[in-house]
Amino acid sequence: MMKEKLQAIKDEAMKQIQASDALDKLNDVRVAFLGKKGELTAVLKGMKDVAAEERPIVGQMVNDTRTAIENLLEETKRKLEARAREEQLKKEVIDVTLPAKKNNVGHRHPNTIALEEVERIFIGMGYEVVEGPEVEYDLYNFEKLNIPANHPAKDEQDTFYVNKDIVLRTQTSPVQARVMEQGRLPIRMIAPGRVFRSDEVDATHSPSFHQIEGLVIDKNITFADLKGTLEEFAKELFGPETKTKFRPHHFPFTEPSAEVDVSCFKCGGKGCRFCKGSGWIEILGCGMVHPHVLEMCGIDPNVYSGFAFGVGLERIALLKYEIDDMRLLYENDIRFLKQF
């Protein structure tokens, strides 16, 4: 009876092993016959009911059956694994004659290139780069810059108001006011950053753009220092032959104030389409810091003086790379950006 039972278990196991076409099915067969609750294990648990003199014979029969099942399981496992590897290799075959995929690596945006160039120039002159909040108090964006509540400049700048006391900054000058308030003198800094004005989008305007504003506060600073600084900046940025011209202007936070032109680096000042025939290109505004601005920021105007200037980053990028439409900088057209 025991021999017939073991033979039946062996035959059934062999049949199921040979029918297995996947490793998980083969493992199910192993568990069903050799596991803790398997059929062969159940036979071993029933050895206590076998007569003592027959136990060695039955034990040997059980071991032979187990060995036969295990050998077939192992052989079948190797075949299935080999078949799986072969199928995987067929799926993962690589045609080395095909062209390789291009690794498209991005690069710096024209605005970033221009900003890094301006920062390099001023850091070389001993300036530090300072950043400030884009959402700013009206106090710093206007009042501490000598632009009180009823000043017409508030209307001219078309400000985005969060509420009556908080605005999206219209310039990076609030960073200068914050630094002056700290009272750590002397000051030599530039403040680059994003600014916001309620402008319609066109070739030269955007509701969001970037400015770089500079500030120097020290004893005995004069307009001559301002002129020398900006002349050196223009030559470094546009070439050593560049000339500068200062025209009187008005800004509420500087007195006296001026706008600065540079000689056209395209035609050398002779007049061309790029400079509209004038030989000059306007690049920035500047002036000596207004004494009242110094007072409001806790600096004695009788002891200290200084100058400030501001330039649009997009203006620099448009001029330097001869781009005629500001909107191209923001459209993310890869055909345009690949040129830089």
How does this structure look, described?
By secondary structure, this protein is of the alpha+beta class. The protein folds into two domains: 2-91; 110-337, Bira Bifunctional Protein, Domain 2 (BirA Bifunctional Protein, domain 2, 2-Layer Sandwich). The chain has twelve helices and nine strands. A seven-stranded mixed sheet has the order 1-4-5-9-8-7-6, sandwiched between helices. Strands 2-3 form a two-stranded antiparallel ribbon. The model has no long low-confidence stretch (mean pLDDT 87).
User: Overall 3D geometry?
Assistant: elongated
How would you spell out the order of helices and strands? HHHHHEEHHEHEEHEEEHEHH
CATH architecture of the largest domain: 2-Layer Sandwich
CATH topology category name of the largest domain: BirA Bifunctional Protein, domain 2
- Give me the secondary-structure category: alpha+beta
Subcellular location: Cytoplasm
Domain Aminoacyl-transfer RNA synthetases class-II family profile: 118-331
Pfam family, one: tRNA-synt_2d
Organism: Murimonas intestini
